[in-house]
Amino acid sequence: MNRYKVSMNNVYVFHKGREVSISHHRDRDPMPDEREVAIIPDKDRGETWSDMTIKYYGGSLNSLIDKLIEVRDEIDKADIHQPSGEGNATGA
């Protein structure tokens, strides 16, 4: 008899080309529910699953919003440091 049951609810959204997962894993007896917002690794950037950013949120809407803002800001910050592929920059 399988005593371990997991109900997984995931929503995937994109911000600046980055995939973001919003999830709520429940019915994980004896473990508590797990709520997380994660930036899915981008293989084209050389990222692996060990590089995944995970932010845990509580049971309130405000907690989820706070973590979504943190993830958005992290993507925005990383996006600034990515080369655009445009232009011909040279050190003069």
Task: Describe this protein with a few key phrases.
single chain, 92 residues, alpha+beta, 4 strands
Number of helices: 1
Strand neighbour order, sheet with most strands: 1-2-3-4
Summing up helix and strand content along with how strands pair, one would put the structural category as: alpha+beta
Q: Span between N and C termini?
A: 70 Å
Q: Encode the helix/strand succession as letters.
A: EEEEH
Largest sheet: 4 strands, antiparallel
Radius of gyration: 17 Å
Identify the quaternary structure here.
Answer: single chain
Topology, number of strands: 4
Per-chain topology:
Elements: E1 7-15, E2 18-26, E3 34-39, E4 53-56, H1 61-80
Antiparallel strand pairs: 1-2, 2-3, 3-4
Task: Describe the protein's architecture and organization.
By secondary structure, the chain is α+β, with helices and mostly antiparallel strands. The protein has one domain (7-80). Helices cover 22% and strands 30% of the residues. The chain contains one helix and four strands. It has one helix at 61-80, and strands at residues 7-15, 18-26, 34-39, 53-56. A four-stranded antiparallel β-sheet has the order 1-2-3-4, with helices on one face. Strand 1 and strand 2 form a beta hairpin. The longest helix has 20 residues, at 61-80. The radius of gyration is 17 Å and the shape is globular. The model has no long low-confidence stretch (mean pLDDT 83).
In a nutshell, what does this entry contain?
The protein has 92 residues and is α+β, with helices and mostly antiparallel strands. The chain contains 1 helix and 4 strands, in the order E-E-E-E-H. The termini are far apart.
